[in-house]
Amino acid sequence: MTPDDSILLDEPTTADLRAKVTEAWREFAAALATLLPTLQPGAHVDITLDPTASGTGTAVYSVSMRVAQDGFVEALAVGNAELPTEYRMDRAAVADMVALGWSPPGVLPGSGDSFGLRGGPDQARELATAVSRTLRDVYGAPHPAFLVYLVHDEEDEPIETTPLGTARHEPAVGGTVDLDDLEDDDALEAALATVDADVVPLEERVRTVVATMSKTTVDQLQVDADGDIGIRAGSAMVFVRVRDNPPLVDVFSPILTEVEPTEQLYVKLSELTNRMPIGRLYCAQDTVWASIPVFGRNFQAIHLMLAVQVMTGLADELDDRLHGEFGGKRFFVEGDKPVPAKDRPSDEHRPGMYL
């Protein structure tokens, strides 16, 4: 343990990442289990691993559920015939699908090239668990925030529902964090006028800024059990946490997990931190974190916006760079898909955009 480890382990950014991700999946499965019994016959729930985040091109991993006239839920999950050759599931992944309860393609009437699953109204919890584990363990979604979903009727008219955990509602998928798109936005100017008011609590101001950047509403922000706001931007997962004492907004991201702490790693993180315009990189337990603090006193919305923009860029860039040098596991990468290791592309060291 390095001299700084005892300090870093007390920081909010060093919370158990695995526990945070596991809890997010539990919330997603619970929300889906609660939703299914409320839907009328003919309703559909379509859930897709966002291809813009996965970098898998035309490969789309999705699960679609339909409520039949008898009240049973029929689910279809994408099979190999619907995937490009290089992204098809191997035998182990297919076996995992069967173990989760899916019938092979063509077995369930009307399933065609998809895996099929059918359950009654009293089996909503089991269905939701199977779907959640399929998306996470077989299709490789690292966090529900990388999922997009749409609930609609037989005429494709959207059905208003409560959010499915931190998954993103499909109409909001286009809302990525990009300051260039927001500079002349009237909604942004109105939001900034609101959040800069001294009478508004810091937490509310922060949520207003993040919601405006994400082109969504405060009520639909992805907030986990720790109170952290989750932002999925590209291949990065960024969290925003508000601290009361002292007033501080922490923008942080898990760059690399399951990495072995070595002297070389600490030296590298120190060198990179010294070259960063703001923020720092550090290793706590077996995770490399990036953190950018924003002062809560005299809070300025533009400071938080810049921190989020820089963090999403850093996380997306550094996970590849550090993984290539120190191994470990990136939060989200093509290699997490069910693709044989020998077929995965090697990492390339891209020119530093922020460093």
Keywords:
10 helices, 2 domains, disordered N terminus, 33% helix, Yope Regulator, Chain: A, six-stranded antiparallel sheet, 19% strand, six-stranded mixed sheet, 355 residues, alpha+beta
Descriptive notes:
The chain is α+β, with helices and mostly antiparallel strands and about 350 residues long. The protein folds into two domains: about 15-170, no CATH class; about 200-325, 2-Layer Sandwich (Yope Regulator, Chain: A). About 35% of the residues lie in helices and about 20% in strands. It is built from ten helices and twelve strands. It has helices spanning about 5-10, 15-35, 50-55, 90-100, 125-140, 180, 185-195, 200-215, 265-275, 300-325, and strands at about 45-50, 60-65, 75, 115-120, 145-150, 170, 230-235, 235-245, 250-255, 280-285, 285-295, 330. The protein has a six-stranded mixed beta sheet with strand order 4-3-2-1-5-6. A hairpin with a 2-residue loop joins β7 (about 230-235) and β8 (about 235-245). α2 crosses α5 and α7 runs antiparallel to α8. The chain is globular, with a radius of gyration of 21 Å. It starts with a helix and ends in a 25-residue tail after the last strand. Mean pLDDT is about 80; it is low at about 1-10, about 170-185 and about 335-355. It comes from Actinoplanes missouriensis (strain ATCC 14538 / DSM 43046 / CBS 188.64 / JCM 3121 / NBRC 102363 / NCIMB 12654 / NRRL B-3342 / UNCC 431). InterPro entries: TY-Chap_M, TY-Chap_N.
